[in-house]
């Protein structure tokens, strides 16, 4: 899921005109050594914090059916996570960096969610909304100054971007439907009888199947004959 969020952000930023301008979009850690090796205008989208949104955790399990309507698997509900990014612009002059960062800001604040057309993999299959919060005051994540201190670099202008994305639940295969009856074998048989072959109890197909969908009602055995008692009159 994380790499799919990265891909969605990359597509969103490149579609805003960065790719046409020859600006690279990378997801590297902006350390001092990385900054020294940079040679082209770059937008760095660095993921530095991941936390589960426990308030959105669901319960139970959903059912997965095949084309014939048979139950084939059960899937636990998705779990939601908050991914926090530090977005910076890198160029030869501070003015160019600020212009580039302004372009990135205009692109991100125009979207409250990652557009569905940009989603791939499990995010596209789930069909759920992937939230996007740019430079919000309520970002619950380490401060930018702490991130720069951990990276060993000099602090510069940056944007805090938080993405709320679902992680697909665990899928467990279901047992196949019952199609044959039980096989009954006897431990001891008559002389010359093959006791290993057994006798199969077949399910009866009827026009009105029972609640299980494959067996019908049992036939009622005939009532036993009534024994005559002394004193009963003959017909």
UniProtKB/TrEMBL annotation:
It comes from Streptomyces diastatochromogenes. Residues 189-205 have a biased composition (Basic and acidic residues). Residues 189-235 are annotated as: Disordered. This is Pvc16 N-terminal domain-containing protein. Pfam families: Pvc16_N. Transmembrane segments: none annotated. Residues 225-235 have a biased composition (Basic residues). It comes from the Bacteria. Residues 4-180 form the Pvc16 N-terminal domain.
